[in-house]
Amino acid sequence: MPLPWEALLPFALTTIMISAAGTLYSASQRFQNLGKPPRYGIDSWDDMMMKRDKLLTGHVRGQSVS
């Protein structure tokens, strides 16, 4: 039995909305982290360095390599 064409419109809208929400969430995370990817597995050393960076630059992701 073929797929009714009426089912494609809600499927496409749902797919587009989920994709847009994921993209906007990712962009929001990057914007909040000064364009850097999110940190994972933060230990006590990283926490201490983030506090230091916050005091020096005003943002926990303020340090850069350059």
TrEMBL record:
Family indicated by similarity: Belongs to the complex I NDUFA1 subunit family.
PANTHER family in the record: NADH DEHYDROGENASE [UBIQUINONE] 1 ALPHA SUBCOMPLEX SUBUNIT 1, NADH-UBIQUINONE OXIDOREDUCTASE MWFE SUBUNIT
Protein name: NADH dehydrogenase [ubiquinone] 1 alpha subcomplex subunit 1
Subcellular location as annotated: Mitochondrion inner membrane
InterPro entries listed in its UniProt record: NADH_Ub_cplx-1_asu_su-1 (IPR017384)
GO CC list: mitochondrial inner membrane
One Pfam family linked to the record: MWFE
Annotated signal sequence range: 1-21
Domain of life: Eukaryota
Protein task: Accessory subunit of the mitochondrial membrane respiratory chain NADH dehydrogenase (Complex I), that is believed not to be involved in catalysis. Complex I functions in the transfer of electrons from NADH to the respiratory chain. The immediate electron acceptor for the enzyme is believed to be ubiquinone.
Membrane recorded as keyword: yes
UniProt organism field: Armillaria novae-zelandiae
